[in-house]
Amino acid sequence: MSLPSHPAGPAPACTCAPTAPKAPEPAGGGEPDGAAGRFGPTHALILLIAVLGLGTGLFLAGTELETVFALLGGCGAIGAATLTAAGGGRRLMSVLVEAAVRSGAGK
Asked: Where do the TM regions start and end (predicted)?
């Protein structure tokens, strides 16, 4: 069995015509630049349906109404904090934290 022979010297330079540089692909797979982090009306509708469905399911399962409201309020607070932090809304986050501290202090 013989190995393929390679030239001893450097390989000849490519004579292909230079091509235009490729446009950078968007980070995250298929989203165009600028679309990441946007919260649109479709997202709001999906979340509204999910919250209403979850609340209805919990109520029909026999959960007390106060507990349903507390659970959904906690989920909403976590979701709002996550969207704010992911969107870089430091100012909005500080306002929300300040409001929570004031309401906890009774002011």
From this structure: 44-62, 68-86
The answer to whether residue 77 sits within a structural domain is yes
Longest dimension (CA), the chain: 88
pLDDT at 35: 53
Report how far residue 4's alpha carbon sits from residue 44's, in angstroms, rounded to the nearest whole number: 63
**Three-class SS state of 105:** helix
**Contact residues for 26 (Cβ-Cβ < 8 A; gap 6+):** 32, 33, 36
Residue 56 has pLDDT above 90, yes or no: yes
Count of domains forming the chain: 1
**Residue-range definition of the domain harbouring residue 75:** 41-105
